[in-house]
Amino acid sequence: MTHHSASDDSIIGGVTKPSTRAERRKAELRQEIIDTAFACFAEKGYHATGIADIATELGIGHGTFYRYFSNKRDIIDHVIDDLASRIIEALGTDNAPDAAASLDQYREQIDRIGVALTQILTADRRVAQLLLFHATGIDDELTQRLYGLLDTADALTAGYLDHGVELGYLRADLDTRNTARAVTGMLLAGVVHGLRDPDENAIADLNRAIRRLLVDGVRADRL
């Protein structure tokens, strides 16, 4: 019997559903290991948590753990990979950087993206807490990976802004590179405030304020 079910406080959700019973059980156990690891990280801290702690809490042997993950750091990488893939998926098709052809479409796009990102980033607060407050203290490689994700977010946001400037619905003198950095900063601050005050109405109000700045602060007719 496990002590931490994959159906409770699930860190991530599989992108594709396993087709066979054996594959489903394998995916479930992998998820249980991730969830149990994060529960241990939250209780003891990342560095103080050992593989033995995770295995004992879950009721499995060390060998079973190593069939799924190389080490506890591998769990962090897996969660980051899944988080990034879900964000990329949310930014496809109608939400792609070059999808909006007018200010109204850009506004609608920002609203959709805001809702999607809020759902992804607040699905499990332990992930945001680990990445924002603890991950940079784990090792230099992970720190550099997080900086790379930050650069990617900046570049992606700049793509939306560059497209709007090119089509003329965003102001022509917009410093898209630094505006993108400011937007990323607002989004990260929004996540931090959401962790501090998980009230859904407060989060919704803050998100609306951010989305308004993303439109009214850069639209062409503000010149």
Helices and strands, with pairings:
Elements: H1 21-44, H2 51-58, H3 62-68, H4 72-90, H5 103-121, H6 125-134, H7 140-167, H8 176-196, H9 200-216
Helix pairs in contact: 1-2, 4-5, 5-9, 7-8, 8-9
Overview of this protein structure:
- Mean pLDDT is 86; it is low at 1-15.
- The chain has 9 helices and no strands.
- It has helices at 21-44, 51-58, 62-68, 72-90, 103-121, 125-134, 140-167, 176-196, 200-216.
- The termini are far apart.
- Helix 1 packs across helix 2, helix 4 (72-90) packs antiparallel against helix 5 (103-121) and helix 7 crosses helix 8.
- The protein is mainly α.
- The longest helix is centred in the last third of the chain and has 28 residues, at 140-167.
- Helices cover 69% and strands 0% of the residues.
Which key features would you list for this structure?
elongated; 223 residues; mainly alpha
Shape: elongated
Largest pleated sheet? none
Overall average residue pLDDT: 86
Percentage of residues in helical conformation = 55-70%
Class of secondary structure makeup: mainly alpha
Computed over alpha carbons, the radius of gyration is 20 Å
DSSP, total strands: 0
Summary?
This protein has nine helices and no strands. It has 223 residues and is an all-alpha fold. The radius of gyration is 20 Å and the shape is elongated.
